């Protein structure tokens, strides 16, 4: 039908400005025109005028002709149906190429035509509403849609008009009104008698998805979970189960229902392989496992996320890189803070392979070095710090201030571990006796870098006597630096 075709286009983006628009030029006249298109009129004369006095004027009426005015015959000339159809088609084409200002007069001509059928009037009014949306006049579009419902309350397009009103209200931030319109869409579609069952069924299922989406966007995750769960049970072919399932997992995570996050997340990964949301679901599952105290399974999810890079990251590299780096950073640092240094180290070692740039390598290598220190592996820590400082020569004077700070801290830690090893050898020699000492070298205490927190618990011992404590970073010292995620 002609009226249905006008609604087959998507809504524009949110904004509501009437400056310089075609509809704004009509002012209040448009509202009057739409609410009650005028019937054809004839020239009215004063009722008390003497006919004889009036007769000469009527005989010479042609002398008042002007090229700027239509004649009485031209004003009341009936428009042919084919001409009205051409007006509608031309207006639609003008709207599609964003020339609403030129389309409005043609649509108004259809509404003013005295013999225009209702079908054409409905189409013209819907076209005017869509032009209002294209010109970002959302309030005017709502006004026209409301007048459409008032004039034709039983029209088969009313459920879709209500749905579009709900979408506009949500764009305007009026979520309560939006929900009201979505519910009205479903109730109206069930009441109207029409043979277009599939059309109304799709409108109803979309209204249900929009209700769930409105709650989801508001952060009302309790209601969002309720409606998203219902949608997951529906078998309608138009539903995008991947997006619905993903939003269900996110809503469950925001509610702190970590057991459900693990269950639904695994179900998502089993049925929605290769989707762009897969890395984020892995991250949410890893976080849920950590909250449940199941650190081994959390580590497994992060490592799986790292391994999936080679298989799936080619489809959308920025998305995968972002979630791999974010998941690795957050989970590894949380495990480190909880004292699970071995699992944290495993994630850091996977992270260092994600990016070869110094901006990424340097902070991650520093975290690996600190983790080795926590695990009492000083020689591996020295090797890691040495590799880190190799980037200092690579960058030269172009190193960012934060990287220079890490270089200073890594150098100080490496020098301290070397000093501590020499001091420990001297202590052992002194313990065995003077005869076993061969040319001992006095230990030299490295100077800590300026403007950095000293990460050591004890001052290095003096050269004469005393025992040196085994090097361990402080239990309550500063956390390792975190490499920033790719935006």
Q: Label the overall shape.
A: elongated
The main pleated sheet reads as: none
Q: Work out the helix count.
A: 23
* Share in β-strands: under 5%
The low-confidence parts are: 8-19, 37-50, 450-487
Structure class: mainly alpha
**Helix content bin:** 55-70%
Instruction: Report how far apart the termini are.
Output: 48 Å
Q: What's the total number of strands?
A: 0
Order of helices and strands: HHHHHHHHHHHHHHHHHHHHHHH
- The whole-angstrom Rg is 38 Å
Mean pLDDT: 77
Report a brief summary of the structure.
The protein is built from 23 helices and no strands.
Task: Describe the protein's architecture and organization.
With 487 residues, this protein is mainly alpha-helical. It has 23 helices and no strands. The model is unreliable at 8-19, 37-50 and 450-487 (pLDDT under 50). The chain starts with a helix and ends in a 55-residue tail after the last helix.
Write the layout of secondary structure elements.
Blueprint: H1 2-5, H2 22-26, H3 28-35, H4 51-59, H5 72-75, H6 81-96, H7 100-112, H8 118-134, H9 138-151, H10 158-171, H11 175-191, H12 197-218, H13 221-233, H14 241-254, H15 258-271, H16 278-291, H17 295-307, H18 309-312, H19 317-337, H20 341-351, H21 358-374, H22 378-395, H23 401-432
Helix pairs in contact: 6-7, 6-8, 7-8, 8-9, 9-10, 10-11, 10-12, 11-12, 12-13, 13-14, 14-15, 15-16, 16-17, 16-19, 17-19, 17-20, 19-20, 20-21, 21-22, 21-23, 22-23
């Amino acid at each position: 039908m002609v009226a249905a075709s006008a609604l087959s286009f998507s809504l524009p983006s949110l904004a509501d400005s009437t400056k310089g628009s075609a509809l704004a030029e009509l002012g209040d006249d448009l509202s009057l025109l739409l609410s009650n298109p005028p019937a054809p009129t004839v020239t009215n004369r004063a009722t008390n005028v003497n006919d004889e006095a009036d007769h000469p004027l009527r005989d010479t009426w042609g002398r008042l002709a002007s090229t700027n005015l239509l004649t009485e015959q031209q004003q009341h000339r009936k428009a042919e149906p084919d001409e009205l159809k051409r007006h509608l088609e031309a207006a639609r084409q003008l709207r599609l190429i964003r020339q609403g200002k030129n389309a409005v007069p043609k649509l108004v001509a259809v509404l003013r035509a005295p013999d225009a059928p209702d079908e054409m009037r409905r189409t013209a009014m819907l076209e005017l509403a869509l032009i209002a949306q294209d010109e970002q006049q959302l309030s005017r579009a709502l006004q026209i849609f409301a007048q459409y419902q008032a004039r034709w309350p039983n029209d088969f397009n009313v459920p879709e008009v209500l749905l579009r009103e709900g979408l506009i209200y949500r764009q305007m931030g009026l979520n309560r009104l939006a929900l009201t319109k979505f519910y009205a869409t479903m109730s109206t579609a069930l009441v109207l008698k029409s043979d277009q069952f599939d059309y109304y069924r799709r409108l109803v299922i979309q209204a249900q998805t929009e209700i769930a989406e409105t709650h989801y966007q508001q952060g009302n995750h309790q209601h969002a979970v309720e409606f998203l769960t219902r949608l997951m049970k529906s078998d309608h072919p138009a539903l995008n189960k991947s997006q619905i399932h993903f939003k269900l997992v996110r809503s469950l995570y925001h509610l702190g229902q970590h057991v459900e996050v693990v269950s639904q997340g695994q179900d998502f990964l089993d049925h929605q392989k290769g989707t762009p949301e897969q890395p984020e679901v892995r991250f949410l599952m890893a976080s849920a496992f950590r909250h449940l105290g199941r650190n081994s399974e959390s580590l497994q999810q992060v490592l799986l996320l790292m391994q999936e890079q080679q298989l799936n990251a080619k489809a959308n590299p920025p998305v995968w890189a972002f979630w791999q780096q974010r998941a690795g950073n957050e989970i590894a640092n949380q495990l480190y803070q909880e004292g699970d240094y071995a699992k944290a180290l495993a994630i850091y070692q996977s992270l260092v392979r994600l990016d070869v740039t110094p901006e990424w390598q340097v902070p991650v290598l520093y975290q690996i070095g600190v983790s080795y220190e926590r695990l009492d592996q000083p020689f591996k820590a020295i090797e890691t710090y040495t590799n880190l400082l190799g980037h200092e020569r690579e960058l030269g004077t172009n190193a960012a201030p934060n990287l220079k700070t890490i270089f200073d801290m890594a150098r100080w830690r490496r020098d301290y571990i070397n000093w501590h090893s020499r001091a420990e050898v001297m202590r052992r020699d002194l313990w065995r006796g003077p005869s076993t000492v061969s040319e001992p070298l006095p230990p030299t205490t490295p100077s800590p870098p300026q403007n950095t927190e000293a990460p050591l618990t004890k001052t290095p011992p003096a050269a004469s006597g005393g025992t040196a404590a085994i090097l361990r970073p402080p239990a309550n010292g500063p956390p390792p630096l975190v490499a920033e995620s790719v935006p």
